[in-house]
Write a structure and sequence with these properties.
The complex is a heterodimer. Chain A is built from ten helices and ten strands. By secondary structure, chain A is α/β, with parallel strands linked by helices. Chain B is an all-alpha fold. Chain B has a single domain, classed as Orthogonal Bundle (ABC transporter involved in vitamin B12 uptake, BtuC), CATH 1.10.3470. Chain B has a two-stranded antiparallel sheet with strand order 1-2. The longest helix of chain B is centred in the first third of the chain and has 32 residues. Classes of the chains: A alpha/beta, B mainly alpha. At the A-B interface, α2 and α3 of A face α6 and α7 of B.
Chain lengths: 246, 287
Amino acid sequence: MSMISAAPQTAGRLLGEALVAGYREMEILHGVSIAVAGGEFVTVLGPNGSGKSTLLKTLCGLLTVKRGAIWLLGNDVTRASARDRLLAGMCYVPQVRGVFASMSVMENLEMGAFAKRASEVSDAFERVFTYFPRLAERRRQIAGSMSGGEQQMVAIGRALIASPSVLLLDEPSAGLSPAAVDDLFGRIRNIANDGVSIVLVEQNAAKALEVSDRAYVLADGVNRLEGPALHVLHDPEVRRLYLGGD
Amino acid sequence: MSELIRQYLVSAIVIASAWAPTAAGISLIYGVLRYPNFALGEFMTLGGYLTLGLSAGFGMPLPLAALIAVIAAGFVSLAVDQTAFRAVRRAGILPPILLSLGLMLILQNVVRAFWGNGAWQLDLPLTRPYDWLGFVITPYQLMCIAVSVLAIGASYMVLLRTRFGKAVRALADNPDLALVSGIEPEPVYAGVAFMAGLLSALGGVLLGLQSVLTPLMGWDSLLPAFAVAILGGLGNLMGAGVAALIVALAGEYSLLFVQSSYKSAVAFVVLALILIVRPAGILGGRS
């Protein structure tokens, strides 16, 4: 099934090799592989329950790997804690509850840098504010009182503060208006253009593919398809299954 | 009658000063670790009796004895958290509740084993009460109120401003996100357990300054302290302070209408009434 069974370990910024993982009683990933190059924008598609979110949780360290391996910048992080993966350069934005709702925007960003020394992240705040100028205006607002789109900016900003080389995003478009989704995807594209590798899990397939470099399609916890985003966008099977048309 | 009304107000504020720190401890543990810790009442007893032991037994001045006692109680709480409670961290809500009930019985009986079942009094020099416009209050009662306000205020500032406090709030708000933000939870849990043990023990010292020490003093305060913690909004320290005052006022002023044996029941009627209107407590939960 897997189309990248023999990816070399040194190429690529992030490599997940034949990952088997899931929850205590239920295995969800049955051997998923993914490879992401530096500054590459990769979208992961698939129907509900195909293992997209589980893949991100496994990559970031919230779920343990049962079999397989994860390589980040040439280091084996398969058994590393979430904190160590963050320090190694991989940050994760969860699908729901991506902000500390009771804390201010500034505090949310500070929490993203919790594991790092203040001197290491002094520039990072300015960088986040250039991607999301709105956050600079709203520093003191409590995150839980913001709109869905603004909260998503806080969520991504929190992850960017640690200056990751790989950013894992789980359905940031959920609950946003079409205009807000276009705006957000444009900003994520900018982040990738600045050299941060993006792994985006999305239901909003067509829009995500338009801004991505490459895409993976998962089904039932295994790789189904992989290729340049535009090829995947025009793949008849993908169109039939996920894009609701032909 | 008006004299009674004045005096009930003083009594209410004074008893609230002992309940508030304990309720803050309960609130803190629930807010971060998500279980009601029924042993915290016994940390009151422990705080009171350790102060007694250090001052009467070792001849320490009372403030020093109280300081060492509450810090020691904090470390007892930390030690239990990092051993027994840590072992059941991922096992759901029931195991820590049962553990806290077991710890409650152990602490209560350790105190009995050392000091017996009788009542003890902290050795306080006699003082003359102040009388302001008919409000009669002793210097010790004033001190209790001041210490309680300071303790709640300081705890609040720790949570608001310090690195540790921000980690506490992040873990209470969103544990998974705290984890992927690189916060190591165990040192934070240990700190929370220390704070909760210390605050509860402080409540016990303040209660001891107001009346006498008995092995059941913590048990007797447990239900009001829980009522206060729930009313204040679990996880909300300032709420605990305000709620302590409300529950205490309701209890004291009920004496105008019902016998004193109904006093503690009144606290729960108030709790029920307020929660019907504001289910998350008066100031809302978790802040």
